[in-house]
Amino acid sequence: MAQAPTSIPTTRGPDREPRRPSLALPPGSCDCHSHVFGPAGRFPYAATRSYTPPDCTTEDYVRMLSTIGCERAVIVQPSCYATDNAATLDALRSGTFDFRGVAVISGHEPDAELQAMHDAGVRGVRLNLHTRGAVLGLEDAGRIAARVRPLGWHVQVYVATATLPDLDGLLATLGGTVVIDHMGQPDVRAGVDAPAFRTLLRALADGRCWVKLSGAYRLSSSHPGYPEVTPFARALVEANPAQLVWGSDWPHPNFAGTMPNDAELVDLLADWIPDAGVRRQVLVDNPARLYDFPRST
Questions:
Q1: Which residues, other chains included, contact 182 with Cβ-Cβ below 8 Å and sequence gap of 6+?
Q2: 31, 249, 267, 285: which is the annotated catalytic residue?
Q3: 48-291 fold
Q4: pLDDT in tens, 238-278
Q5: Residue 5 has pLDDT above 50, yes or no
Q6: Are 191 and 165 in contact (CB under 8 A)?
């Protein structure tokens, strides 16, 4: 197995015993944010990474998905692989589940390489402005967006919106479909009226971006209910449920707090989205549209 340099911390893995949630998910539900790692001997990590995860393989992930009741899933390229999408593409091509993917690219790939990713199921590209060691920055945003626009891919942005000087300007630069990770990483202590979160709500309400309802455990230490996050999730649902998706963020990489069981994260949806019809929209209909899954009848 590839060994990490001693200066790069090795992080914990997920709860390896997923439970069945109390909330039954509707048929066709999709986990829209996850990662796969390893085996490290086959898929070595980038020297630029800021953490080294344990092996969390496609097989591990499929077992979790089957337990919580998801029938579709989206695998997002993590920062520790930089622009080497081999592990993500291997999962997409495995045939073990109904997967789509979000890649990380340099923007210098040949057209044929991007088309091969598309054929494997990639439907978006990630711009990580949050994790230390990520290989792209704000200065790359317009170039990357232009590179993938002919493929119809969206741009997924991982950022704490409070650190952005101009979210509206970034959305205009990116154009097309933009997805904001983890609810924009709001500071829950600042409340839903904080300027950065209000800007995100306006952009969502106006249809200028999508938002992932994910990462509650990263925003609050109040495990397992994360009550400080509930007003933010509900505000996003009220603003525009037609452009929201949900994600588990399995296997919860680079996280030092109390590790959630994925059933707990599913059960948050009963409180965040009490209406079963709206939950179906967020869990089934919206992912089908955003990630080009076959539409459920």
A1: 33, 158, 212, 214, 215, 218, 219, 249
A2: 249
A3: TIM Barrel (3.20.20)
A4: 999 999 999 999 999 999 999 999 999 999 999 999 999 99
A5: no
A6: no
Distance CA 284, CA 78 (A): 24
**Catalytic-residue membership of 168:** no
**Domain assignments of the chain as residue spans, ordered by start:** 48-291
Nearest to 125 by CA among 149, 98, 160: 149
Per-residue model confidence as pLDDT tens digits over 207-220: 999 999 999 999 99
Cα–Cα distance, 107 to 233 (Å, whole number): 33
> CA distances (Å), 134 to each of 80, 140, 274, in order?
8, 12, 36
Q: What distance in Å separates the CA atoms of residue 92 and residue 260, rounded to the nearest whole number? A: 25
- Give residue-wise pLDDT tens across range 225-234: 999 999 999 9
Could you tell me which residues come within 8 angstroms of residue 130 by beta carbon, excluding any fewer than 6 positions away? 158, 159, 160, 181, 185
Q: Please state, in angstroms and rounded to a whole number, the distance separating the CA atoms of residues 54 and 13.
A: 6
Looking at the predicted structure, is the pLDDT value of residue 297 above 70? no
- As a whole number of Å, the CA-based R_g of the chain is 18
Q: What is the pLDDT of residue 137?
A: 85
Between the CA of residue 277 and those of 25, 247, 271, 282, what are the distances in Å?
11, 18, 14, 9
